[in-house]
Specification:
heterotetramer, A mainly alpha (633), B mainly alpha (103), C mainly alpha (374), D mainly alpha (166), A: 633 residues, mainly alpha, two-stranded antiparallel ribbon, 2 strands, elongated, B: 103 residues, Helix Hairpins, 3 helices, 0% strand
Chain lengths: 633, 103, 374, 166
C-alpha cells in the first residue's frame, strides 16, 4: 500500500482541478461531493498506509521523480513514510474528511460554494505534501501551499473589508515566518550539502554548535509564524473572519500543527543544538499562558477558540522543548479532534443563530441545539483535561514531562494555564448553552443543524472520548510511545524513568487544576458569587489590558509598520531623485548637445565649403610642416 | 624639357587656389561648379607633371588623370541636375538662398 | 629626315615639304570650297533635271567666284543686343578646328603636316570642338531660333560623336596604330580597309554626315522651321566663314574616309612618283564629296527625334557590336584579317536587309493604330 | 633653339591660365566665365602637350572642352542671368580673407618651388602606349568601376531632372 502513497495527495489535487475548472459553470453543488469523496478516498489510503507502517514496515522513501539536479544539489519529489508521517497523514485526512462533509451543509447557501471547495481541496493537497515530503525543499512547497490557501480561505468573503485585511495580515505574518524557514533551509544545505532529511540527520555531527543553533532557531522562527506562537501569533484570532469550517480545518487541526511537525521531524537537529530546545520550551510556555489570559475575556465564541488553540499549541511546543516529542505529537492528534469538534460546534451554533457569534446574545441554547451541546460539552471537557477524555492524557503527559525533565518553572506555568483553560471553557459553555436566553428573538429562531453537520460532530466526539485511552493509556508507555518513540526520541534527550507513584501524583495535581478551574467558573457564572461584571470592574486596568489583547496589534502597527513606512519613503525619494534624476540628466545632456550642434547646420552651402577648405589648409600646413621637418626636429 | 617641375606645380597650385576662391566667393551655383572644374584641372596638371617626371615608363600619374576625367564628367552632370531640380522648386540659383535643408 | 623625291637633299626637302603641305592645305580648303559650291549646285541641278548655273563664265564656272565677291562686298551687320565678343568669336571657333585638322591628313607618301602618333585622336578632338562654336553662335545671336538651332545641333553633334569614334576605333583595332600616316601605309594596293571593315565605313559615313550638319541631318539650318538655325543672325563674310567651315569639314570627313578605308594615296605608279599620291588622294576625297552632295540632293530631312533615335537606338548598338565582334575575332585569330572581314560583311548585309523589314512592320503597326483610333 | 621656345610657351600658357582662371571667378556675366573656363582648359591641354603627354592633352580637350563646357553652357542657359552683378566687390571681409590667405599662399609657394630638381623628362614616344597599357592592364578593374560610376551618374542625372509629365 505504501508504494501508492502518492494517491493520498493525488485525490485532493484531482478534486481541486475538477472543482476549479468545471465548478462554476457545471458542477455547482456537486463540487462539495467530489471534494469530500476525494478526501475520503485519501483517508482510506492513509489508513491502509498507517496499518502497513503499524505492521512493522521500515521507513521507506517513495520517489516520484527527480525534481532539481543542479551541480551537487539534488532534490526529488519523494515521500518519506514512517510512523511520524503516517500518524500525521492519518490525522489530517480523517479530520479533513469530517470537516468536508460538515461544510457541505454549512456553506450550502453561499454563492462561492464551488470556490470554497476548490481552495479547501488545494489546501488538503498542500498539507499532505508538507507532511509527506522527504526533504526540506518539498516540505517548503507544502508550507507555502498551505500559507496561500489559508490566505485565500480567510479572505473567502472578500466583499466585506475585514476578511481580506485579516487574510493579508495572515499571509504577511506567515511570509515573515517563511523567511526564517528559508534561512534555516539554506543554512542546512550550506552546512550539510543536502536538504534530504535522511542525509541531514545522519551527518548531524559534522555541524558546529553555532550553525546548528542558527538552523534550529531559524526553523523555529518559521514554525512560530505558521503555528501562531508568540512573536507572530496575532494573525490567528483575526483569521476567524473566514468561514468556521476553515477555522476548524486550517486554524485548529492541520496548518497550525505544521510548525509542531517541523520541529518534531527535525528533532535530531534540535537535540544536538542545546540551547534551541530551551528556547522552544520557553516560547511555548509563555505563549500558552499569554493566550489563555486573553481567552478569559473574549466574548466572540470563535475568538475564544482561536486563543485556546494558540495556547494549546504553546503546550505542544512546551512538550517539544522539554524533550518529549511523542507527547507533543500525541497532544497534537488529540487536540486536532476536540478542537475541530469545538470549532464545528460553534459553527453549528452560529449556523443555528443565523450568523450571530457574540456569546452575550446567546444563552440557554441547550434545549434548542441538544446534539451540538452534548458534543461540545465532551470537547470542552477534553480541552479542560478531565480524566477519561483525550485531552487529559496528552496534556498530563506534557506537564509530567516538564516536571520530570527538570523544568519546575515550566511545569508551574503549565498547571496555571490548565486552570485558566478550564475556566474559559466553562465560561464559554455556560454563556452559550446555560442560563437564560439573552436575546429572545435569536432564541426563537435557533434550530438544530441538519444531520450532515451533526454526524461529523458525533464522529469527532467519539474520537475525543476513545482516542485518549486507546493510544495513550499507560502514561509514558502507551501505544503511541512504542509506535513513535524510535522515530522521534533522540538519545540526547532527557531520559526519565517514571515511577508509578510520581506519575499518579502529577496526574492528580493536573486533574485538580482542571477541576479547580471549572469550579471557579461555575461559581462565578452560576451563583454569581463574584459576579463577572463586578470582577471585571474591580480588575480595571488589568481587565482593559486583556480586552485589548495587550495592545499587541497596535504595538506592531506603530513600531514596525511605521519603521518600514519611513524606510520605504526614503527609498522612494532616493529612487526618484537619484536614479530618475540621473536618467533625466542624461536626456537633458543629449537634448542640449543636439541643439547646440544643430546651429552648425546653417543650410548655406558656402559655410560647408569654407569648413572643407579650412580642413584642407590644415592638412596642407601639417603636411608641409612635416615635409619641412619643422615638427620632427 | 627645360621648364623645371616646380614651375608646373606652382601653376597648378595657383590655379587650384583660384578655383577654391571661386567656390567660396561666388554665390551662383553654376560658377561654383566651374570653379570646382578648375580645381580638378589643377590637380590634373600636377598629376601629369609628376607622372611625366617620375614614372614616364608606365604613366601611373596619368592613369589618375583619366579617372579624374570620369569623375569630373559625372560630377558636372549630377551637379547640374541638382542645380536644375533645385531651380525648379525655387526660382533662384543663388546658393545662399537655397537654404531649405537648414538644421 | 626623309629624303626628298627626285633626290633633293634632305636639308632642303624638310622645309620644302612643309611649304608644299601648307600650300596644298590652303589650296584644298579655299579653292576646294569654291569648287564644291559650284559642284554642289551643278549636281543638284542635274539630279533635279535642270541645268544649274550657266551664265557666269563657261558652264557657270565663275558662279562661286561671283558669290564670293558678293559676300565680301556685303556689310557684316551685327545686332546691337547680341553678345558682342562671342558673336564675333563664334565663326572662328567653328572654322579653326576644321582648318587645324588638315595638319594630320597624309596627302602623299612623305607629304603630311605632322605625323602625330595620336593623329586620329587629334582629329576626333578637333571634331568635338566645333560643338562649342555652334553653341556659342546660337547663344550669342540672342534670338530664339538661333538658340534652339544651336542647342539642337550641339545635341546632334555630341550624340553622333559616339558612333563616329567607335567606328574609328574599330579601324584602329584592325590597323593597330592611331597615326594617320601609319594607317595610310597599311593599305598598299588592293588591301583596302573598306574590304575588311565595310560596316565601320557605313556607320562612320552616316555619323560624318551628321557631324557636318549635312543632308539628312541638316536640321539646325532647316529653313522650314528654324529659319537658319544658329546662322540666322550672321550675314556677309561671317556667314561665309561658317559655310567655308562646313565645306571644309566635308572635305575633312571624306579625306578621313579615304585615308582609313580606301588607301589614302595608294594608286598605280605611286612608288615611282610619290607626288602622284596627291592626285589619287584628291580624286578619292572628291569622289566622296560628290557622294555627300548626291545624298544631300536625294534624302529628305530627319525630324529631331528620328535623328536622335537613329543615333542612340541604331548606330551606337551597331557600332558597339561591330567593335566587340572585331575585337574578339582579332583576339581569337591574331594575325589574319579575313575572319574580321567576313563577320563585317555579314553584319553589313544583316543591317541592310533588316532595316527595311523593321520599317515596314512599324509602318503597318502605325496604320493599325490609326485605324483603331479613327 | 628649341630650348628657348618652351619656356616662352610655358610662360605664355601660365599667364593665359592664371588670367583666364581669375576671369572665371571674377567675371560678372556667367557666359563670359564659362567661356573663359573653356579657354583655361585649352591652355591646360597646351601645358600637357608641353609636358609631352599628348594623349592626355587630346582627352583633356575632347572631354573638358568638348563635353563639360557644353554641359555647363547648357546649365548657364537654363538658369537665369541674375541682374545683380556678382563678384568680389561687395564682400566686406576682404581684409580678413587676405590676412587669412596670404600666409598660406606663401607657404604653398615655398612647398611648390621646393621641387627644384631637374626638368621633366619626356619619354620619346609620347605617353600613348605606356598610358594605354597601364590603364587597360594594371588598372583594368578601377576602369570598370569608373564606367559603373559614369553609368550611375548618368542615370542619376536623368532621374533628377526628369519632369513628370503632369
Amino acid at each position: 500500500m505504501i508504494e501508492n502513497v502518492w494517491l493520498i495527495p493525488a485525490f485532493p489535487l484531482a478534486a481541486f482541478l475538477i472543482d476549479g475548472l468545471f465548478g462554476r459553470r457545471w458542477l455547482h453543488k456537486w463540487t462539495g461531493i467530489i471534494a469530500s469523496t476525494a478526501v475520503g478516498l485519501s483517508a482510506l489510503v492513509a489508513i491502509g498506509v498507517f496499518l502497513e507502517v503499524l505492521g512493522g514496515r521500515a521507513r521507506t522513501t517513495v520517489t516520484l521523480y527527480e525534481w532539481i539536479g543542479v551541480g551537487d544539489f539534488h532534490s526529488s519529489v519523494a515521500a518519506l513514510v514512517d510512523p511520524l508521517s503516517s500518524v500525521m497523514l492519518l490525522v489530517v485526512t480523517v479530520v479533513s474528511f469530517l470537516i468536508f462533509v460538515y461544510s457541505n451543509a454549512y456553506m450550502e447557501h453561499d454563492h462561492g460554494f464551488h470556490r470554497f471547495f476548490t481552495w479547501l481541496s488545494l489546501f488538503v493537497f498542500a498539507m499532505l505534501i508538507l507532511v509527506m515530503a522527504d526533504n526540506y525543499l518539498l516540505m517548503f512547497v507544502g508550507w507555502e501551499g498551505v500559507g496561500l490557501c489559508s490566505y485565500l480561505l480567510i479572505g473567502f468573503w472578500f466583499e466585506r473589508p475585514e476578511p481580506y485585511v485579516a487574510a493579508k495580515k495572515a499571509f504577511v505574518m506567515n511570509r515573515i515566518g517563511d523567511w526564517g524557514y528559508t534561512i534555516g533551509m539554506i543554512t542546512t544545505f550550506l552546512v550539510f550539502g543536502s536538504v534530504q532529511f535522511t542525509d541531514v540527520f545522519e551527518h548531524v555531527g559534522i555541524a558546529t554548535q553555532a550553525n546548528l543553533t542558527l538552523i534550529c532557531v531559524a526553523f523555529f522562527f518559521g514554525a512560530t509564524g505558521k503555528s501562531a506562537q508568540l512573536p507572530l501569533y496575532s494573525w490567528l484570532p483575526d483569521a476567524m473572519e473566514g468561514p468556521t469550517p476553515v477555522s476548524a480545518l486550517i486554524h485548529a487541526a492541520t496548518m497550525v500543527t505544521a510548525g509542531v511537525y517541523l520541529v518534531a521531524r527535525s528533532m535530531p537537529l534540535f537535540a544536538a543544538a542545546g540551547p534551541s530546545l530551551a528556547v522552544v520550551g520557553i516560547v511555548g510556555a509563555v505563549t500558552a499562558i499569554f493566550a489563555a489570559t486573553i481567552a478569559l475575556v473574549q466574548f466572540d465564541i470563535k475568538r475564544v477558540m482561536a486563543y485556546s488553540t494558540v495556547s494549546q499549541l504553546g503546550y505542544m511546543f512546551l512538550a517539544l522543548g522539554v524533550g518529549a516529542p511523542v507527547a507533543a505529537i500525541f497532544h497534537l492528534a488529540t487536540h486536532a479532534f476536540f478542537k475541530a469538534l469545538l470549532f464545528l460546534g460553534s459553527g453549528s451554533v452560529i449556523h443555528g443563530l443565523g450568523g450571530e457569534q457574540d456569546m452575550r446574545k446567546m444563552g440557554g441554547l441547550r434545549r434548542k441545539l441538544p446534539v451540538t451541546y452534548w458534543t461540545m460539552l465532551l470537547a470542552g471537557g477534553a480541552l479542560a483535561a478531565l480524566p477519561p477524555l483525550a485531552g487529559f492524557w496528552s496534556k498530563d503527559e506534557i506537564v509530567a514531562a516538564a516536571f520530570l525533565g527538570g523544568y519546575p518553572v515550566l511545569w508551574a506555568v503549565g498547571i496555571l494555564t490548565a486552570v485558566l483553560t478550564a475556566f474559559y471553557v466553562t465560561r464559554a459553555m455556560w454563556l452559550t448553552f446555560h442560563g437564560e436566553p439573552r436575546d429572545h428573538h435569536l432564541y426563537d429562531h435557533a434550530h438544530e443543524s441538519p444531520a450532515v453537520m451533526t454526524l461529523p460532530l458525533m464522529a469527532l466526539a467519539v474520537g475525543t472520548v476513545v482516542l485518549g485511552i486507546a493510544i495513550g493509556f499507560p502514561p509514558e508507555a502507551g501505544f503511541i510511545h512504542r509506535f513513535l518513540g524510535p522515530v522521534v526520541e533522540v538519545e540526547g534527550l532527557v531520559e526519565h524513568a517514571p515511577e508509578a507513584a510520581t506519575i499518579l501524583l502529577l496526574a492528580g495535581i493536573s486533574v485538580a487544576a482542571g477541576v479547580l478551574g471549572i469550579l471557579v467558573g461555575l461559581s462565578m457564572y452560576v451563583r454569581h458569587r463574584p459576579d463577572p461584571a463586578a470582577v471585571s470592574r474591580a480588575a480595571g486596568p488589568l481587565y482593559r489590558l486583556l480586552v485589548n489583547k495587550y495592545f499587541v496589534d497596535e504595538l506592531y502597527d506603530h513600531r514596525i509598520v511605521e519603521l518600514f513606512r519611513a524606510a520605504f519613503g526614503a527609498m522612494w525619494a532616493f529612487d526618484v531623485h537619484v536614479i530618475d534624476g540621473l536618467a533625466n540628466r542624461l536626456g537633458w545632456l543629449a537634448a542640449t548637445g543636439g541643439s547646440s550642434l544643430r546651429r552648425a547646420q546653417t543650410g548655406i552651402v558656402g559655410n560647408y565649403a569654407l569648413t572643407i577648405v579650412a580642413g584642407l589648409l590644415l592638412v596642407l600646413v601639417v603636411y608641409g610642416g612635416y615635409a619641412a621637418g619643422i615638427f620632427t626636429r | 624639357m627645360v621648364v623645371p617641375l616646380g614651375a608646373f606645380i606652382a601653376v597648378s597650385a595657383v590655379l587650384f587656389f583660384i578655383g577654391t576662391a571661386g567656390v567660396l566667393v561666388r554665390r551662383n551655383a553654376v560658377v561654383i561648379l566651374m570653379s570646382v572644374e578648375l580645381m580638378l584641372n589643377a590637380t590634373n596638371l600636377a598629376l601629369v607633371a609628376f607622372s611625366r617626371r617620375f614614372s614616364s615608363i608606365d604613366e601611373r600619374g596619368s592613369v589618375f588623370v583619366v579617372f579624374i576625367f570620369v569623375v569630373a564628367a559625372a560630377e558636372v552632370a549630377v551637379g547640374l541636375a541638382i542645380v536644375l531640380s533645385a531651380y525648379r522648386n525655387k526660382p533662384t540659383v543663388d546658393v545662399d538662398e537655397i537654404r531649405q535643408l537648414r538644421g | 629626315m626623309p629624303v626628298g623625291p627626285f633626290g633633293i637633299d634632305p636639308a632642303i626637302w624638310a622645309p620644302l615639304r612643309l611649304v608644299i603641305a601648307v600650300l596644298l592645305v590652303v589650296g584644298l580648303v579655299f579653292n576646294g570650297a569654291l569648287a564644291q559650291i559650284y559642284l554642289e549646285r551643278k549636281i543638284q541641278a542635274v539630279i533635279q533635271d535642270r541645268l544649274g548655273p550657266l551664265h557666269t563664265g563657261p558652264w557657270g564656272l565663275l558662279q562661286t567666284f561671283a558669290d564670293a565677291i558678293k559676300l565680301l562686298g556685303k556689310e557684316d551687320i551685327r545686332a546691337r543686343l547680341t553678345d558682342k565678343w562671342f558673336f564675333l568669336a563664334a565663326p572662328s571657333i567653328v572654322f579653326s578646328p576644321m582648318l587645324a585638322s588638315y595638319v594630320v591628313i597624309p596627302f602623299a607618301p612623305g607629304i603630311v603636316g605632322a605625323d602625330l602618333n595620336v593623329g586620329l585622336l587629334y582629329l576626333t578632338t578637333l571634331g568635338s570642338m566645333t560643338v562649342l562654336g555652334v553653341v556659342i553662335a546660337g547663344w550669342a545671336s540672342n534670338n530664339k531660333y538661333s538658340l534652339i538651332g544651336g542647342l539642337r545641333s550641339a545635341g546632334q553633334l555630341i550624340s553622333y560623336e559616339v558612333p563616329q569614334i567607335i567606328s574609328l576605333v574599330t579601324v584602329v583595332l584592325v590597323v593597330g596604330t592611331l597615326s594617320m600616316v601609319g594607317i595610310a601605309e597599311s593599305q598598299p594596293g588592293w588591301q583596302l580597309n573598306f574590304l575588311v571593315l565595310p560596316l565601320a565605313f557605313v556607320t562612320y559615313f552616316i555619323a560624318g554626315l551628321a557631324e557636318t550638319n549635312r543632308a539628312p541631318f541638316d536640321l539646325p539650318e532647316a529653313e522650314s522651321e528654324l529659319v537658319a538655325g544658329f546662322l540666322t543672325e550672321y550675314s556677309g563674310m561671317r556667314w561665309a566663314i561658317f559655310f567655308l567651315a562646313e565645306y571644309g569639314e566635308v572635305t575633312v570627313v571624306s579625306s578621313i574616309v579615304t585615308t582609313l578605308w580606301f588607301g589614302a594615296w595608294h594608286g598605280p605608279f605611286v612608288e615611282v612618283f610619290p607626288l602622284l599620291g596627291v592626285l589619287w588622294f584628291t580624286l578619292k576625297t572628291y569622289f566622296f564629296v560628290l557622294v555627300f552632295m548626291w545624298i544631300r540632293a536625294t534624302l529628305p530631312r530627319l525630324r529631331i527625334d528620328q535623328l536622335m533615335s537613329l543615333c542612340w537606338k541604331v548606330l551606337i548598338p551597331l557600332t558597339l557590336t561591330n567593335l566587340v565582334v572585331t575585337a574578339t575575332l582579332l583576339l581569337v585569330f591574331p594575325n589574319t584579317v579575313v575572319p574580321v572581314a567576313i563577320a563585317n560583311w555579314i553584319l553589313l548585309a544583316a543591317f541592310v536587309l533588316v532595316l527595311p523589314y523593321v520599317q515596314r512592320r512599324r509602318l503597318v503597326a502605325l496604320r493599325e493604330r490609326l485605324r483603331t483610333a479613327a | 633653339m628649341f630650348d628657348l621656345i618652351e619656356p616662352a610657351l610655358f610662360a605664355l600658357l601660365t599667364i593665359a591660365i592664371v588670367a583666364a582662371g581669375a576671369g572665371v571667378v571674377l567675371a560678372n556675366r556667367i557666359t563670359t566665365s564659362a567661356l573663359l573656363m573653356a579657354f583655361t582648359f585649352l591652355n591646360i591641354a597646351g601645358m600637357f602637350v608641353l609636358l609631352g603627354a599628348e594623349t592626355v592633352a587630346m582627352f583633356q580637350v575632347l572631354i573638358y572642352v568638348g563635353a563639360i563646357t557644353v554641359l555647363i553652357l547648357y546649365g548657364v542657359m537654363f538658369t537665369p542671368q541674375s541682374p545683380r552683378p556678382y563678384g568680389l566687390f561687395f564682400q566686406t571681409q576682404k581684409y580678413w580673407a587676405a590676412l587669412f590667405v596670404v600666409p598660406i599662399a606663401i607657404f604653398v609657394a615655398l612647398v611648390a618651388f621646393s621641387f627644384r630638381d631637374s626638368a621633366t623628362v619626356g619619354a620619346k614616344g609620347g605617353d600613348l602606349l605606356p598610358l594605354a597599357t597601364s590603364v587597360f592592364r594594371d588598372f583594368a578593374f578601377p576602369f570598370e568601376v569608373a564606367s559603373v560610376l559614369l553609368l550611375a551618374a548618368m542615370v542619376g542625372a536623368i532621374v533628377l531632372v526628369k519632369r513628370d509629365e503632369d
